Amino acid sequence: MKHFLKSEHHKKYFKALIEDNGDAIALIDRNGNIIYQSPAAEKIGGYTIHENDGKTASQFIHPDDMAEFGEMMRMLAEKPGNSATKQFRIIHKDGHEIWVEGTISNQLHDHAINAFITNYRDITERKLTETKLKVSEQLYRSLFENMLNGFAYCQMHYDDHGKPFDFTYLATNTAFETQTGLHDVVGKRVTEIIPNISEKDATIFEIYGRVADTGQPENFETYFESLQDWYWISVYSPAKSYFVAVFDVITKRKQAEASITKLNAELEERVLARTIELSEANKALEAFSYSASHDLKAPVRAIMGFSKIILSEYKDKIDPEVGELLEYIDDSAKHMNEIIIDLLALAKYGREELRFTSVDMTRMIKDVWASISHSTSHNATLDISELPAVTADFSMIEQVATNLISNAIKYSSKKETPMVRIWSERTQDELIFYFRDNGAGFDMKHFDRLFRAFQRLHPSADFDGTGVGLTLVKKIVEKHGGRVGADAKVNEGATFYFTLPLESIQN
Fold first, then answer.
1. What is the pLDDT of residues 287-326, one digit of tens each?
2. Can you spell out the DSSP letters for 45-107?
3. Can you give the pTM of this predicted structure?
4. CA 1 to chain centre
5. SS3 string of 401-464?
6. Torsion from C-alpha of 166, 167, 172, 177, nearest 10 degrees
7. Structure confidence by residue, pLDDT tens digits, 129-177
8. 151 beta partners
9. What separation in angstroms does the CA of 130 have from each of 87, 99, 135, 143, 435?
């Protein structure tokens, strides 16, 4: 009775052990038929034991794994008592594939069992994870090996005082070898590969050691004396006493920068020398212009004086044709005198230093208009807006206003109602003064000639002048840090303007 109770207890024990086990257990006869499966097998494959009636185990194996599974079963059939462990795929009842890992044991020789015992578990999630890890590893390896930057993963070594004195290469990529010329360094200390590096490139040890110790990344450029190249290096620490150096050779860039720096220095020297030469040439030219103009004044005045005396005292006694010639000589001398005066003004304003003072632009321009009206007969009217006061050289800005107003009156003189309008505008960068007339205007295609000396856009028979006035305007305005310009249409008038820096405005 006790033996019977013990036997019944064992049966319940082993039944619970099999049926409550998460791993599947199945018995397969020598023909491959499934003669038993545990409840876990149904959970894994989806088929009940009744649905497996008349089916062989091979019917559930993935087609791609069939040949290998069949070969394993044949080998086991020849070796009673042997077992084999294998990973393979089975097809679930709903059609998706499942990875399983199990052990198959040949127990055909045991008459009590007379079957193959299979014990397996579902490892699909593990296989998916392994696949992802493999893909990730392949991606990492591909990125690592194909980086254009050199890469070195190293362990820093410190002495008893915490000073870095050496490091070991743990991993490098292809670009590391290409850029440094060092090969087979993994597992070796840098002092083995480059014995004198700690003396020649001590700064590198300081930076690498600091990053490996503190974990604070650093970027820097340095010349590697040991490798005879310039490098850009980014270094960070993934763990205490370890560091990663990502770097690129920048020797060509540094050489180019050095060449550019040298060229810039040489260019600055040439520009400075040329500027000095031009300045001296301009001074010499201004001195020559002043001297030549000054020396011409006396003979020109003599010509004007003598021709005037002859015309006034001997006009009735000389041939009329001679008289006309004398009048032509007098007119030419007067024109020459005007040119000399303008040349002297150019030389004067080119040589003089600016004397800044407060200038009431509205008052000054009204005074200029009154002065011109007093000395010149005209019927032009003035329309002037309120203008801001500025800090400038009074006499020079007065000369600018005189020239621009005189031109406006002259070139509008043939209009029935000549008018001159003057106003100002303020922009973000400068103060602009406009002088507008309704006169003859000009073709803008000749604009580039406008502010050149002796470049006239109208025949002297139509409008007199020397062609120097606008050149003088440009010189004075530029000396104040401003610029000049104009806009016009033929027979529709012209607008001339000049600018002054905003800081010249008096608040």
1. 655 555 556 666 767 676 767 777 777 767 777 777 777 7
2. H---TTTTTT-BGGGGB-GGGHHHHHHHHHHHHTSTT-EEEEEEEEE-TTS-EEEEEEEEEEE
3. 0.41
4. 96
5. HHHHHHHHHHHCCCCCCCEEEEEEEECCCEEEEEEEECCCCCCHHHHHHCCCCCCCCCCCCCCC
6. 0
7. 887 887 777 776 676 677 788 889 999 999 888 899 999 999 898 888 8
8. 246
9. 13, 12, 9, 19, 84
What is the C-alpha separation between 220 and 64, in angstroms, rounded?
55
User: Is residue 432 a contact partner of residue 424, using CB atoms and an 8 Å limit?
Assistant: yes
Spell 25-60 as b/e; 16+ CB within 10 A means b: bbbbeeeeebeebbbbbbebbbbeeeebeeeebeeb
Sign of the torsion formed by the C-alpha atoms of 410, 412, 417 and 420: negative
Please state the length of the chain: 507
Do 380 and 420 contact (CB within 8 A), yes or no? yes
Q: What pLDDT, in 10s, does the model give residues 203-238?
A: 888 999 999 999 999 999 989 888 889 999 999 999
Q: Helices H, strands E: what count in the chain?
A: 13, 17
